[in-house]
From TrEMBL:
Transmembrane segments: none annotated. InterPro entries: Aminoglycoside_PTrfase (IPR002575), Kinase-like_dom_sf (IPR011009). It comes from Microlunatus capsulatus. Residues 76-178 form the Aminoglycoside phosphotransferase domain. Residues 264-285 are annotated as: Disordered. This is Aminoglycoside phosphotransferase domain-containing protein. Residues 266-279 have a biased composition (Basic and acidic residues).
Length: 285
């Protein structure tokens, strides 16, 4: 995320060919997508029910849409603010508040999302997920989580869809290169402990099913990227060209090869664990 200034256009928040994002005063401007109206309807609902951490929707024009700017630290810098237990708990609590706020949303016009799904869920298990609850989409101010941004991947799923995605990147279910270079952690994370902190703050049990959910989420992310690229979506095609699909596939293999790190102690009894902790049996790091 860059912060170059162009007085005639505004401040560049994201310089991406398919989705340049500008800040113009208190407004963030995105290129309009076919699902922009649905995202804005969701943001309007959240504003109405008092979920303060989502951007406020603005006008939707022929070629762009506007949302309110949330002041604070986000993007790459925000990834380095989630190392502590308190930050993990705040993410879980925010996600729980969001899910509770959206669970009963039933607009008169069923929204259509980026992946072609339509509606807002079944009133039970399924609801509208944020879809991209990574640390880069969090906004922090004075050590307090004040925003969840970039709702372009909102779609229908379950609470655990969002939870698993968040845990993938917060725990993380990834190798040393990620937790050290992206999250800025000085020491190897206590992964099972971070899962437990998140689960307790959200209000769900931390069990081996949750581990399976995260591993499934990793694979689903790879499958979705590949599918959207094959459909001709520019963003996913660029990600594939840049090697992101291969990197995410390696993360899937790492998660599968290190499942024991996240399981309950009883499931690990009698198993020899590697003392270095972060070497995949196949040598991936």
């Amino acid at each position: 995320m860059t912060a170059d200034a162009r007085p005639d256009e505004g401040e560049i928040l994201q310089e991406r060919a398919d989705r340049p994002v500008l800040r113009i005063g208190d407004v963030v401007r995105h290129p309009r997508q076919p699902w922009s109206g649905s995202v804005h309807a969701l943001l309007a609902h959240l504003a109405e029910v008092g979920f303060a951490e989502a951007p406020r929707p603005g006008p939707v024009a022929e070629d762009h849409d506007d949302v309110g700017y949330i002041e604070g630290v986000s993007g790459d810098a925000a990834c380095r603010l989630v190392a502590g237990d308190e930050a993990v708990a705040q993410v879980a609590q925010l996600l729980r508040r969001y899910h509770d706020a959206v669970a009963g949303w039933r607009p008169a016009t069923p929204p259509t999302w980026f992946d072609g799904q339509t509606g807002t869920g079944d009133g039970g298990e399924h609801l509208v997920c944020h879809g991209d609850v990574g640390p880069w989409n969090l906004v922090w101010r004075d050590d307090r989580l004040v925003g969840l941004i970039d709702w372009e991947y909102a779609t229908i799923g379950t609470r655990r869809t969002d939870i698993a995605y968040a845990l993938h990147y917060l725990v993380p279910f990834r190798d040393r290169a990620y937790w050290q270079n992206v999250l800025g952690m000085a020491r190897k994370p206590r992964r099972r402990h971070r899962m437990a902190v998140f689960a307790e703050a959200y209000g769900i049990p931390v069990d081996d099913q949750l581990v399976d959910d995260v591993l499934a989420s990793q694979q689903a992310g790879v499958d979705l990227m590949r599918t959207l690229a094959e459909q001709g979506r520019p963003r996913q095609q660029q990600l594939v060209a840049d090697g992101e699909l291969d990197r995410e596939h390696r993360a899937v293999l790492w998660g599968q090869g290190h499942r024991h790190k996240f399981q309950a102690k009883r499931a690990r009894e009698g198993r020899r664990l590697r003392t270095d902790g972060d070497v995949h049996p196949g040598g991936l790091r």
